[in-house]
Structures are given as C-alpha cells and as structure tokens.
Amino acid sequence: MTANSISSSMAAVAAQGIGKVAGKEKGEDMPLVLLLRPLNFFLDERLSKRFRLLRPWESPLPRDQFLAAHARSVRAILCVGLAPVNAEILESLPCLGCVVTTSAGVDHIDLPECRRRGVAVANAGNVFSEDAADCAVGLLLDVLRRISASDRYVRSGLWSSRGDYPLLAAATATEKGLERVEEDEQVDLPIVLLLKPLKPFIDEGISKKFRLLKPWESPLPRDQLLAAHASSVRVILSSGRGPVEGEILDRLPHVGCVLTTSAGYDHIDVPECRRRGVVVANSGAAYAVNVADYAIGLLIDVHRRISASDRYVRGGLWSAKGDFPLLEAQVERPTNSILLLFPILPLFEEALSRKYHVLRAWESSMPTPEFLAAYARDVRVLVCSGLTPVDSATLQRLPGLECVVSTSAGVDHIDLAECRRRGIAVTNAGDAFSQDVADYAVGLLLDGLRRISASDRYVRSGQWSTQGQLLGLKGPAAATATEEGLKRVEEDEQVDLPIVLVLKPLRPFMDEGISKKFRLLKPWESPLPRDQFLAAHSSSVRVILSSGRGPVDGEILDSLPHVGCVLTTSAGYDHIDIAECRRRGVVVANSGAAYAVNVADYAIGLLIDVHRRISASDRYVRGGLWSARGDFPILDEQVDLPIVLLLKPLKPFIDEGLSNKFRLLKPWESPLPRDQFLAAHASSVRVILSTGLGPVDGKILNSLPHVECVLTTSAGYDHIDIPECRRRGVAVANSGAAYAVNVADYAMGLLIDVHRRISASDRYVRGGLWSAKGDFPLLEAQVERPTNSILLLFPILPFFEEALSRKYHVLRAWESSMPTPEFLAAYARDVRVLVCSGLTPVDSATLQRLPGLECVVSTSAGVDHIDLAECRRRGIAVTNAGDAFSQDVADFAVGLLLDGLRRISASDRYVRSGQWSTQGQILGLKGRKLSGKRVGIVGLGSIGSEIAKRLEAFGCRIAYNSRTKKASVPFPYFSSVHDLAAESDALIVCCALTDETYHFINRDVLLALGKEGVVINVGRGALIDEKELVRCLVQGEIGGAGLDVFEEEPHVPQELITMDNVVLSPHRAVLTPESFTALLEVIVGNLEAFFANKPLLSPV
Q1: Which of 39, 380, 460, 699 stands 20 to 30 A from 69 (CA)?
Q2: CA proximity to 69, closest of 77, 59, 79
Q3: Where in the chain is the domain with CATH 3.40.50.720?
Q4: Cβ-based neighbour number of residue 750 at 10 Å
Q5: CA within 13 Å, CB half, 177
Q6: Quick one: how far is CA 73 from the chain centroid?
Q7: Which residues are bridge partners to 977 per DSSP?
Q8: In CATH, what class is 191-282?
Q9: Architecture of domain 504-584
Q10: 312 vs 43: CA distance, rounded Å
Q11: CA-angle at 387, arms to 381 and 393, nearest 5°
Q12: What is the pLDDT of residues 558-592, one digit of tens each?
C-alpha cells in the first residue's frame, strides 16, 4: 500500500468518526477538529479539505490558554499515537464527544476516563493490517536470510575484499547479552564501550567478536573520546568498577544496552536507564557455582584453619615446633617474609618464592602505606632494585626491618644514614656485574673506535648496496697501500713514475697514496674498450694491482705478456689464477698482516656486540623506545620483530613457527593490489620468503630495492631469478638438508611401493575388488585402476569433500605439485566424473584433456560455466543442483521483493546510523504494500514455481514468461518479456543464462516496467543489462531493484552502493544449511546413479 493510499484510507476512517460528532455543529462552514501533534503531510492535506484543523503549536498562546479559548467549540480530537490524551486534556475540553487516533493501538488514550465521560474513541481499524503483515514477513525473512546484513556487506566493499559472505553466524555464551543488541557479528564488528579494563581472559574472548573502545588507551581526554563516539556506541560493558550514571548516558544518546560482568549492578543508575529505555543486564548465574564453591571453601578454611596451617608448614614451624597449635593466639606468623615494593626480574621472583614467603606490594588492592602497615611486624627483609627508592618514610613504616637487599651495584637509592641509625644491614650486587660491565665497556670502546653500530645501521638501511663503501665510516686505524711489492719490480723512482695497471677502482685514500709514487692505468676512465686499452699498454705494463673484486685470470695474463707481478689489496687471493701465474713466473703478493690487528679488533667488537647486543641497544635508544617502553628487553624475541615478505601462503605449522620470531607481510590479506602493497613496504623489506610456488623475478626485485636475502622453503630454487639476484648482490638460500631425511624416507617408501605395489593393493581393497575378485593379482596388467575416481579441479565445501571421500576415490588437482595440465594427463584414463562448483569453468580445453570423462556434476543450479555443446558432442552427461536450492532461492527472492517494496534494509541503516533519534520519521523511507501487486516471473521452472506459490499467499496477481507455455499452470503466459513487464508492478528474474537470455532484461523491458516498478534478480547477473539498469535507477525510470547477482562479481557498480531503493546481496540466495544438505543428497544421488548405470536425478 502506498503512502497516498494509506493516507486516503486513514482520512476516510478519521472523517467517518469525526463526522458523526463534529459534522452536526452549526455556525461554521467546516467542523472543528483539534490536533495534538502534527500529522504527516498527506493526511493533513486531505483532512484539511473537510475539517477546520486546530493546531496549538502554530498559535502564539501557551497550550493551556489555547485549549481554554476553544473549550466550547472542540468536539473532536485527532491524535497520531505519540500524543497522550489524558484526564487533564479531557477536563479542559468539556464539550468533547470523540477521540480519533491514526494508530491501531489506543494505549496513549485514557479509555476509562473517556468511558466515564461518554467520549467515543476510534482507532485505525484494519487499515494497517496488510502492510504490517507484509513487513513482519519481510523482517522474518531478513533475520533468517540476513538480507540487510548482506546489503551492508556489499555496500561496505567487503564482498570484493573478503570474498563470499560468511554462512554461519557463530555465537559464544560470553556475548549473549551483547547479541540482544547486535547479532550480526560477522560483518563489521559492533562497537562496545568499556569504562574500565576487563580481566585479560574476558577482554581476549570479547575482542574476537566486538570492537572494544578503551578510553584509557586514547590520547584524548575521556569526555572528548565519548563525544567522538557518541553516535556509534550502542552498548556499554562495565566491569563493576566503573559507574554508569546519568552523565555517561547523556553523552551517549544512542546507547541501547548496559551490560556488567558482575552479578550486582549497584554501580549502574538503573532508574535512569529505565527512564531512557536502556536495557540493563548483569552476569546472571554465570558466577553462581564458582561463588558458591568459594564461599563453602572460605567457611571450611575459617573453621578448620587451612590457610593458617599452610603458612605454618611453609614457614618451617612444623619441623621446628611440632604439631599445629589449636588456638589462633599460639600461631606464629611466617618468620621468613621478604617484601618487594615493585616488581623485579621474573626469574628472580620465581627463585625467591621457592625459598621465602614473598610479599608483593603491587599485587595488593590496598594502597602501599596500608599494605606496609598490615605487614609491618612480618617484614624483616626488603628486596629492591636500583629503581626503588628506600627512603626514611618507607623505613619508618617497617619497624621490624633488619636488612635491605639491593639487586643493583649502586645503593644511592637507599637512605644509608637512616639504615645505619636503625642498625639495618644493607647489601648490594657485589661483583656480580663486574665482568659483564667490563665486557660492555670494551664493546662500547670498540664500537666508538670502529663505528660498529654506525656500520650496522648503514647496512640495515640499504645504503651499502646503493652507495657502496663510505669513508665516513672508517676507523682511526686506516690501512694504506702496500707498495713494497711494487718497489721490487721498479726501483727507479726518480725517473718517470712506473706504470701500474688497476683493474677495478681502489678506495679513494688508497688511490691517492699510491698515485704519488706510481702512474696508475685505469681502464674504466678510458674511452677505449677494455681489450683495446690493454692491447695499447701490453708492452709497458709489468705490474697489476687488484682490489680483490677484479679477477686476474689467464685471459688478462695473455693480453699482458710483460707482467712480472700481481698485487692484491686483500688478504685473500682466490680471485687470482695462481697456477697460471706460477707457470708464467709471475710474482703474486697480498696485503699480508696489514689488516690483522684491525680485523681482530673488529671481530672482538662484533662478538661483544652480538652477545651484549650493543647495536640493538643503540637502535633502541635512537628509536625513542627507551623513553616509551622502559628498559631494553633481555630476550631477543622482545625487540621489534624483523619484517619478512611472503609471496604465497605458507603451510600453517611453518607460518605459526615463523610468526613467533618475525613479522610476516602477507599481500593476499591486504585490500591493496599487490603492486601497491609492495610499494608501500618497499623501504622496509629486507628478506623475501618464498614457498617455491611464488616466482621471485626481476619485477619483484625492482619493486623492493632494499632486499638483501631471498629464502625459499623448498630444496630447489628454479623459481628464483638467480642471475638477477647475483647481479644485485642479493643472497639466496634454500632449505638445504632440512628435507633430506624425510625425502630419503619418502623415496625409500616410493621404491618399496613400486616394487611391492602397496598403493595399488590399497586401491584394490578400497575399491571393493578384494571381496569381488579375490586375491590381488601379481601382474600389473591384471590390476584394474580405480573405477570410481572423481576429479575436483578446485576446492568445494569441506563437508562435501569429506562425504564424497568416504564413498569415492577423490582426485584433488590443487593438492598436486604438478601443473594442472600435467595432473590431468597423468589421470586422464582414470577420471570418469568431474565434480565442479559454479565458479569452475569447464571449457573445451579441459574436456579434451579428459578423454575418459563420462559425466560432469555441477554443485550449482546454473550450468553457464560448462561447455554444454562440447559435452553433447562427446556424449558427456551433465547434472546440476536440481531442485536443491529452489525453496531457499524462492524465500530469498520474496525477501528481496518485500525489502525493496517496504524499504527494510534502508530502514535498518536509518536506525543503525542514529538518524531516527535525531531526524525522526522520514517520508523518504515510506514503503508500498505487496498484497495485490501484479508480479511477473521470468522463468517458471522449479524456482519460479516456488516463488509463485509464496506470492499467491500474499494475494498477488501472477503472470509469467518462459520458453514455452506450461499447460498445467493457471497463470497468464506472455511470450514476450517486454509485454510481461508492461503488465507487472514487479519483475522477478530467475531463468537460466544462455546465449538467448543474455541481457534479456534490457532498457526497453525496464522502461515498460515503469517508474514504480521493481526488478528482482536471483538468476545470473548477465540476464540484466547492468549498465542500463543503473541508468534507469539513477534517472528514476524504475522504482527500485533487489539484486543477489551481478555481471562482474564481486564488483558492484558504485552508483548502486548509495541508493536506498536498491537492496544488494553477495550472491547468497542459496546459502542455508538446509540447502547444502539437500544439495549433497542430489550430488551423491547423481553419482550413485551414474556408477550404477541408472537414470540421473537432475540431468541438464
């Protein structure tokens, strides 16, 4: 029913009720009717034509004066259901004869008082009955099939980023109260405000289902934080310590529920919550059993003195003084109590707790002064770190204190004068730290002299690979060139400088020193190619100087026949062809011991750095972490985890193990495209970890300029561009011998399997051949391969796979290390049946690779993903889901239609956004009734028939279009879908997608449907010309749409996202547990029929 028709009906009802009383009044052209609140525009407009409406809110007079002024003339009141008609109103209008309300309910009218006065009362009667029934059914379908939640899932972009909408909405017992307010946990997490921290295990459990706002973690003051989230907070969760009073509720106007984790709710302003309509819930009986147990335990403890006995034994009194005394006065408190004011290292605490009675002040709920007072006569020893001040005030609170033990070497935090005055002994760490501090001091000295931490940062930042060696990092002891060997060959330094050939650039300071004594030939500075340059100087070069990076091989020596000496600036000479030099009589010399002292210093510095983590400490301080996080952590895993990029998912156990030590970047989990993701992390990625499935090529390496290492979890590395890695200086490592034993075991197993035919025997038994044909044959030719092999190209639902595996030999292509074409070739003669979902294309290329294929079983109702023509040509049977989805899709189609007409999803968004409470009812959300509508169904197959059955119950007039007219169907048939649309208020599309039905619903059909028409699509996206549909909706040429399918799934046209007259669903009309159970029965039934040579259940 439209707003106009409702208003007309309501106006008629109101006029009929009012007319009986007010219509008899003389002296006025139109009878007077008093309004207490504004009516909607349509109702006001129609009634104004028949009655004179008095509107108190338009008068400058106060309301009581306005009513007094019209007391004698008002005989009828018209109210909207929000305005109370109480005794006070009735007393001020003595001539009143009738009260008419526009609502169905009359709880806002004082009926006993009206009866006492003889005032007639009339309501809206049955005007709203059909529309309320429509809306109720729509809401039921929405809740059961989660249509509004699906609509939000599509509009928020989650379908394209996260994939299909989740099927099940899992709930746990802990969040039952929260689910009263927000049950749709699997879409964006609902927001819950915490006023105080929860216990960790409660916080952890609830954080998985809800987004917890924690004011104490925000840099904003609490009042600003509450103001920032005022429109989004619907639920407050209190731990019993945070009061929920009127001030909090004033700041959060949209709160609908206050939950407390405690059994009591004396900290909640319950009257104020009731006044606002806010639901309040406590922990109920959650703690009942535990509290009862604990209460009984305490009672027994008090009567039987269990805790006191425990202290007696732990304090060593049993062995010293005999049996536990009967009277409390006889019990001595522990004599070995140690007080800790603040935490010390956990391993220290653990060790002390094993031998002493440790009192931990910070664990008590009492303030420290009260805690010290409570244990003043027990504490004889105080253990403290160097950060715990032990001043005179603390000492005064501990009259029994005899000793202060400091875990630090220094004691400047202890008031030694007061301790001496009191006779309190003081101890420190003694020499415990001496060696470690000495090591660290030497490490710091070496770090300062040899710039180890600076070098560490230079390498980590990637500058070494981009800028090369940097002289700014040289230490005080710089090596100079060794010119002794040069002098052996050329001693006449006064004449022209002797010539020395340099193959690669030297470090600048070395180049500068040698240039003063020798003429250096540098091929890279010459415009000649290197071979021509060497030929030009072949007669004059007698000495070659190499920097360790340029190889001196036979080819070089052949081009320089007069060379007598080869020198290298490095200690090693593996880059020189020593054998060739000896053969030619060429002298070879290295840097000797020039680097020995410096390298030894540096090695010791590195050793101390690694053990004492000096560079890591340096970064910790420079990064500002010391001031932000406190002392540097002792264990390596506590430092910020290094970043590792994964290109493909790892096996779960490898991922879990590595995640404990490294921060794994997983591009597939990011909403960003892969190239943007890599660009975002380009500066931070130093290591790539590949699984062997993800190629590491030049393109990847170009996008990550700071990569230093590529690791692969496989033994082979043919997926890595090794030459490119070498060119860039990127280290490459494989799994080494990690798999050696397992692979050897497996190889041995395969060898035994082939010779002893274990797998073949296994298949023989599983296939039922042992019981049917007797003992396993000895010869391979006699063995029959499995006759019930089913091929899956891609995963289907896990419980489908499990059910099929119990009865058939299932081949899973994606689990094989072979490429799919090779896998299909390997099993070409075994596969008789292919099982596929609607997302798996079965084209002619796939079919050609399976020469033995006899049947394709699709888990979807549609078969547009299968090359039916090729199947027919080959005689391959094809089956689909049959009627498994029919009822669920029909429910969903009717739900979409009701949602589109009654604007349920749009209303849901309006309420969730808080607009109802701020803007009130808006006419833009008015709906239209379903009852009596003309509905055209495109495709009256199994699904279409179920839709028709449901719509008949709504009193709809049904017509249909199909390939042929159905003799047994009583509905009007239209051979043209255009003509069907022209005679329909709503069009439901549920036919199969074929070449003939592609863009079946085009612009002409949509225009024929009209400006008030609604189109629903639960078939395939391409049945509708999506661009024309969007254009018609934008231009207002049709009234609305409900879409479960789209042309380019999961991409939805952006224009549809913001439209309130469109309902969007991520292709989930079939997603119910019931439909999957029915589908499994159809699939298994088809397979059983095929292998038994019986007729198929749902042939296409």
Answers
A1: 39
A2: 59
A3: 1-16+27-126, 132-146+887-916+926-1069, 191-282, 334-448, 504-584, 643-764, 789-880+1078-1092
A4: 12
A5: 24
A6: 67
A7: none
A8: alpha beta
A9: 3-Layer(aba) Sandwich (3.40)
A10: 85
A11: 55
A12: 999 999 999 888 888 888 998 989 899 988 888 87
Q: Please report where in the chains the tokens 């009581």 appear, as a residue.
A: 64
The rounded distance, in Å, linking the Cα atoms of 450 and 432 is 29
Is it the case that residue 784 has pLDDT exceeding 50?
Answer: no
- Tokens matching residue 1020: 């395939």
Give the tokens for residue 544.
Answer: 């070659």
For 54, phi then psi, to 5°, come to -90, 125
- Please state the φ and ψ torsions of residue 959, each to the nearest 5 degrees: -135, 165
849-856, long-range: CB < 8 A, 24+ apart: 849/821, 849/824, 849/825, 850/791, 850/824, 852/828, 854/1090, 855/879, 855/1086, 855/1090, 855/1096
Contact call for residues 213 and 234 (beta carbons, < 8 A): no
C-alpha distances in Å from residue 1077, one per residue of 229, 804, 862, 893, 1019 = 43, 13, 18, 20, 21
What is the average pLDDT score of the chain? 80
Domain 789-880+1078-1092 indexed as CATH 3.40.50.300: no
Spatial neighbors of 832 by CB under 8 A, at least 6 apart, are 787, 788, 789, 852, 853, 854, 855, 1090
pLDDT band at 360 (very low <50, low <70, confident <90, very high): confident
Rounded Cα distance, 195 and 184, in Å: 23
Taking the CA atoms of residue 307, residue 311, residue 312 and residue 317 in that order, the dihedral angle to the nearest 10 degrees is: 180
Active-site amino acid positions:
1020, 1049, 1067
pTM exceeding the 0.70 threshold for the entire prediction: no
What CATH class does 334-448 carry? alpha beta
Tell whether omega for the bond before 786 is within 30 degrees of 0, i.e. cis.
Answer: no
Amino acid at 286: A
Does pLDDT of 451 surpass 50? yes
